[in-house]
Write a structure and sequence with these properties.
Oligomer: heterodimer
Order of helices and strands of chain A: HEEEEEEEEEEEEEHH
Structural class of chain B: alpha+beta
Helix content of chain B: 10-25%
Radius of gyration of chain A: 34 Å
Radius of gyration of chain B: 20 Å
Strand content of chain B: 35-45%
Number of helices of chain A: 3
Strand content of chain A: 25-35%
Shape of chain B: elongated
Helix content of chain A: 10-25%
Largest sheet of chain A: 6 strands, antiparallel
Distance between the termini of chain A: 33 Å
Structural class of chain A: alpha+beta
Largest sheet of chain B: 7 strands, mixed
Strand order of the largest sheet of chain A: 1-5-6-13-9-10
Largest interface: A-B, 61 and 48 residues
Order of helices and strands of chain B: HHEEEEEEEEEE
Number of strands of chain B: 10
Chain lengths: 279, 141
């Protein structure tokens, strides 16, 4: 096998090893069902850089049937939804004369006061259920009849749903669900709710998940390291290719009368003109 | 010729790294758009159990489906037909199961949930119009 071929295989193997190492260090999200991707990127109310914006909202009127608040499944339009509220029949206490309930979910400006126990990731969503006159409906005292779930931006791990009410943030009992960063709670009241992770804002000032006290994402560190390694291998291989071949002893010459101590080359000497069987 | 091999290998290496890095950011619109026009299907799918308003206990819920006008095939292929495919189950609008039968246990958490089923083609992509069941809202206590 020639040197170039060996170098080619070396580069291919290095690439495979690099891809494997990256996958181990920062695994790509779980592949879904033969590669059919089903997760939209998170949409931010205030995107920065290349982040997608314009999060969707939900608003709908449900008629009251049988004197109880209706069952409904309200969700924003992302896939999966970034915020949703699912109510069983009777999940809300109706006001006298209520004929319909108005359900709305929308991303809103975060309160000026940040949670003291962590950092908001993604959008703050306002969840509202009112009667036709706009009067807020209280959540009924029922067992699991109302569920609220919110999705966090990709890569969010341990997080808690927190509600802003009365000028303070309070944690809600939170259960992580689904394979994406989705968090569910069974709320006893609605309002402004956000996904909060433990930690502080990143050096850029934008909220980010806790990365163990470091302001730099470990994936970035690993990526830079991989590129440096790649460049080193590239430089070595280029150096191997461009360095001059060993000069033959005859070309180097020697002092007249002094026999060369160079061992005879194992290379076949050039054919003499007229010699051989090809004439 | 030989001089081209190493740059070519580097291109392969770069492609591997880039593909690895971009794998998590693909969007569904890009994936489905590449599938081209989708056929319609005469199939209907419905959720037999749980029923809307059901209250259940436990960490899983037993889902029973009814499929009409089509049959379930396990093969994953791009040679699709309107009457063959399988069912995708969604809980709270998240895909949780690729179902090659009409009954399955799905893990659930306490609370109210919405269940939806969709009959999709053998390439996992939806028909046009989509063949979707009525949503069922149930509660896990």
């Amino acid at each position: 096998m020639g040197r170039d071929r060996r170098l080619g295989w070396l580069a291919v193997l290095a690439g495979g090893a690099l891809a494997l190492a990256i996958q181990i260090a920062a695994p790509v999200g779980v592949p879904l069902y033969d590669g059919v991707p089903t997760v939209d990127p998170y949409r931010y109310l205030h995107p920065t850089g290349t982040q997608p914006g314009q999060p969707t909202a939900y608003a709908f009127d449900e008629p009251v049937i049988g004197g109880a608040s209706p069952a409904f499944a309200a969700a924003t339009s992302e896939n999966p939804p970034q915020a949703q509220l699912i109510a069983q029949t009777g999940a809300f206490v109706l006001t006298p004369g209520a004929t319909s309930v108005h359900v709305s979910i929308a991303a809103v400006e975060p309160p000026a006061l940040a949670p003291s126990s962590g950092t908001i990731v993604g959008n703050v969503y306002a969840f509202s259920v009112t009667d036709q006159a706009g009067t807020a409906l209280a959540v009924a005292a029922c067992d699991s009849c109302l569920s609220l779930s919110m999705r966090a931006p990709e890569g969010t791990d341990t997080a808690t749903l927190m509600q802003f009410a009365g000028g303070t943030w309070s944690a809600m009992q939170t259960v992580p669900v689904s394979i994406v960063s989705m968090y569910q709670s069974n709320p006893t009241a609605l309002g402004d709710i956000a996904v909060v992770v433990a930690g502080t804002p990143t050096a850029s000032g934008t909220p980010g998940p806790d990365v163990g006290g470091s302001a730099i994402d470990p994936v970035v560190i690993f990526g830079v390291g991989a590129i440096v390694l790649w460049l080193l291998v590239f430089g070595f291989v280029v150096w191997q290719r461009v360095r001059p071949a060993p000069t033959p002893a005859a070309a180097r010459g020697g002092r007249k009368g002094v026999p060369s101590k160079q061992q005879p080359s194992k290379q076949r000497p050039p054919r003499r003109p007229g010699s051989g069987s090809d004439t | 010729m030989n001089r081209c091999r190493f740059p070519a290998a580097l291109v392969v290496l770069a492609a591997l790294v880039v593909a690895c890095a971009n794998g998590a950011t693909a969007t569904p619109s890009a994936g489905l758009a590449s599938l081209g026009p989708r056929p319609s299907s005469p199939a209907t799918v419905a959720i037999v159990s749980p029923t809307s308003g059901a209250r259940v206990t436990g960490a899983t819920i037993h889902v029973v489906l009814a499929l009409g006008g089509a049959t379930i095939v396990q093969a994953t292929t791009t040679a699709i037909t309107p009457t063959t495919g399988h069912v995708h189950l969604y809980v709270d609008n998240s895909l949780v199961s690729m179902n090659y039968g009409l009954e399955q246990d799905i893990p659930v958490t306490p609370g109210s949930h919405v269940l939806k089923a969709e009959f999709v083609a053998a390439d996992h992509a939806p028909f046009n119009p989509r063949v979707v069941s009525t949503e069922v809202i149930f509660t896990v206590q």
